[in-house]
Amino acid sequence: MPKDGGIGASTKRREDVRFLTGKGRYTDDINIRGQAYAWFIRSDVAHGKINSIDSSAAEAMPGVVKVFTAADFAGVGGIPCGWQVTDRFGKVMQEPKHPVLADGKVRHVGDPIAVVVAETLEQARDAAEAVEIDITELPAVVNMKAALLPDSPKVHEELTSNLCYDWGFVEENKAAVDEAFEKAAHVTTLELVNNRLVANPMEPRVAVGDFESHSGQHTLYTTSQNPHVIRLLMGAFVLGIPEHKLRVVAPDVGGGFGSKIYHYAEEAFVTFAAKALNRPVKWTSSRSEAFLSDAQGRDHVTKIQLALDADNNFTALRTDTYANMGAYLSTFAPSIPTWLHGTLMAGNYRTPLIYVNVKAVFTNTIPVDAYRGAGRPEATFQLERLVDKAARELGVSPIELRRQNFIKPDQFPYQTPVAVVYDTGNYHATLDRVLEISNYAGFEARAAESKARGKLRGFGLAHYIEACGIAPSNLVGQLGARAGLYESASVRVNATGSITVFTGSHSHGQGHETSFAQVVAEMIGIDAGQIDIVHGDTSNTPMGMGTYGSRSLAVGGSAIVKATNKIINKAKKIAAHLLEASEGDIELKDGKFTVAGTDKSVDWVGVTLAAYVPHNYPLESMEPGLEETAFYDPSNFTYPSGGYACEVEVCPETGKVTICAFSAADDFGNIVNPMIVEGQVQGGLAQGIGQALMENCAYDENGQLLSGSFMDYAMPRADDFPMFTVDHSCNTPCTHNPLGVKGCGEAGAIGSPPAVVNAVIDALHRAGRTDIAHIDMPLTPSRVWSAMNA
Amino acid sequence: MAKVSMTVNGKAVSGEVEGRTLLSTFLREGLGLTGTHIGCDTSQCGACTVHVDGKQVKSCAMFAAEADGAEVRTIEGMANADGSLSVIQQAFQDHHGLQCGFCTPGMVMAAASLLADNPKPTEAEVRHHLEGNMCRCTGYHNIVKAVLAASGQDAGQIAAE
Ligand code: FES
Ligand code: FES
């Protein structure tokens, strides 16, 4: 039994107390004396030429401080993109300008045109009505394939076409893959859509800019998953503010799921305006505005094919994907359909030859970037739907076809044909485990019981692999990343033994204040209550990369381990001095330093006090104090995997799908706080099931957003789900980070959509509808009903 | 501008509001009670849930002026008198019923209202009651568990089923 507060314990979260009593401090809770309020005027057409903006009437209205337009940003850089992809012909991607405020043209509904700043929010909103904007609407392009036709309207006239890049991976394998398809005994083909989603963290984005004219110091309070990244991008590329004059603070953040990674125009705006007006400026997004301005997720259209030999072994895989970038390149958009998608196409399988083609396309829609899973859900959905379809075509069990083609437990580390090397895993174990916890053996009886009630029951399986904690920095640099992907930590031991840990990771719901403290408590052997975690403020934390891609424990936790080890090494030296022993003989256990084989000891506080009151201290050979910083750059990704089983009932009259049970058996390596890990999986499952059954971000052919509020974008609610069965007993620890941990934040959202769709197809096939090979997500009652009545 | 007076968490308060000022805005901006959150502009998410005269209300769907003279309770008024967590709040912590915490005040207020009317709800009743409160983080699993536990039922047993 792990000790409460140590590694492996389901320690209750300390941050909960403030959240449960209304004492959380989110960005919108911050008001600075004298602040003005910003109201963004956004385009209501998807594509148009701005002829004129007349703000004179608005500027004369009560309380209005100033109306900003693109003209005010003439000397300012555009919103940068953080990843440059090189295409299959060796050419770098087409990268359009992305002005802070629309300059001459609007390119998507919601594109910001002007901003009214006023004394009160109501005054700003009222005055916005009086700003006269004359726009000539231009033909919009929404469909990706249409956007690539030679006569398509161009989203950016300075580019040669709407094609951002045409990426091939691994390009050298293309001919061999095609040849394997010619020789195949069977080829399964599937065309599918990965529906566009809106992340919708419950806290909308907020930005507050502050400026101190006497020192030139800027402060930005923002709802961000990575304040240092915002400081770097905004400071260096947009506004030209050096880091020491720019502080970015992300206080409590109410969820992100990727949408709060990116640097957004509103952040640059309030920072810029605070200086221009010499007063604080605040912007709070409404939910409607979030639908128009937060980067969206997914939106891939794919044709994928699997080649099998006569014994049903996978021999080759090829896939053609169109990936929607929207109207501009959001911060990490180009990397999602490429390096976070193509590299995952081996899945859990031994497929020896793989070729991935991705065409990234500009359209007159809101930009698309990472959303929980980012590229990996798209890869997993294709593969796991395809394998299921192949099994049905061949008349074999989808379970057995998977098992037969899985990478075997003794084949790790496993070099895939798509560049990555999986360090550990045991897919046979997670598959067996999910069949056990889902009581697959009892399925036929449950199906019969459903049938008696007039319902169609189906069982769907999916097995996923994901790559978390993207790294190492030198490799991702070669792949086009314009940032490093390490993480940082400073461990400050105070004189009386308490510890403050400053981390470059940033929690937006993951519970770092609790789990990171557990790691340090375990290493030193003191109570977790003695340890505080500080994050989210560039003024007091070391340069870090923040939280996304299931990286925080694997990368940020490793940095903390590294810094804590430096602390322990120094503390041992101090203890050796105090105990008049040699350093090599000092052992640290339960917060006590002992000379091995003796009862001579000094406790933790004895050492920390000596470090800061160095009366009896080897000053000639060691500095006083006990504070260390470490940066950790991982040598590889971590590769969590798992088997997911979904059981559904389909109503044959209405097409309504009900989730009866959902079971997840994940391999996350070692686990620091099982309670938190289970919570991450449950939340991910809800988002993945949401994608599969109800969520859909839709545009009409003119680029109007049809799903612009919670009235028409279906968010999962409490009564859409059963209790989930979540298991993490099959663990193969990661071999290249000190904690042996793998990422767990995105798994649920990656593995669940294909499990749900496979279950629905299974239900239909069992009912004799073997003609229905696929239904595109979301599987709403009308789509399922239409498929059944086609 | 008009003057409104009400009792919030047992304290008499008053302030000047416009006719269009929402109760949620008055609580947050007028009284500094920022525990009540705003998650939408279509009265769908429930993050702003408070109690008005003992009834669960979405405070973004009510004008401050309509609450004149009312008895209002917000998340800031839910802890025990000694500051310790109330049974419902404690159950949320014990069962990891929150992650980012943004939906949490609304969830706690909704749960308190459910349990006041229905002290031993079934899982289905809990889910149905929370239908107007969105959470993007937890998948609701642990929220439902927490509410059942707060009602004195064995949440572990229910979750294991
Ligand atoms: S803020 Fe009131 S329901 Fe969303
Ligand atoms: S805990 Fe984040 S929205 Fe519910």
Total E-strand runs of chain A: 28
Number of helices of chain A: 19
Largest sheet of chain B: 5 strands, mixed
Assign the CATH topology of the largest domain in chain A. Answer: Aldehyde Oxidoreductase, domain 4
> What structural class should be given to the helix and strand makeup of chain A?
alpha+beta
Layout: helices, strands, pairs:
The complex is a heterodimer of chains A (790) and B (161).
Chain A: H1 16-20, E1 36-42, E2 48-54, H2 56-59, E3 64-68, E4 105-106, E5 112-118, H3 121-128, E6 132-137, H4 144-147, E7 163-169, H5 174-183, E8 186-194, E9 206-212, E10 217-222, H6 227-239, E11 246-249, H7 265-277, E12 281-284, H8 287-293, E13 300-308, E14 314-326, E15 353-362, H9 376-394, H10 398-405, E16 414-415, E17 421-422, H11 427-437, H12 443-452, E18 456-465, H13 473-478, E19 487-493, E20 499-503, H14 512-524, E21 531-534, H15 552-579, E22 586-589, E23 592-595, E24 601-603, H16 604-612, E25 627-632, E26 641-650, E27 657-667, H17 674-693, E28 724-727, H18 747-766, H19 781-788
Parallel strand pairs in A: 1-12, 10-11, 14-15, 20-21, 27-28
Antiparallel strand pairs in A: 1-5, 2-4, 2-6, 3-5, 7-15, 8-13, 9-10, 9-12, 13-14, 16-17, 18-26, 19-20, 19-25, 22-23, 23-24, 26-27
Chain B: E1 2-8, E2 11-17, H1 23-30, E3 49-52, E4 55-58, E5 71-73, H2 87-94, H3 104-117, H4 123-129, H5 141-150, H6 155-160
Parallel strand pairs in B: 1-5
Antiparallel strand pairs in B: 1-2, 3-4, 3-5
Bound molecules: FE2/S2 (inorganic) cluster (2 copies).
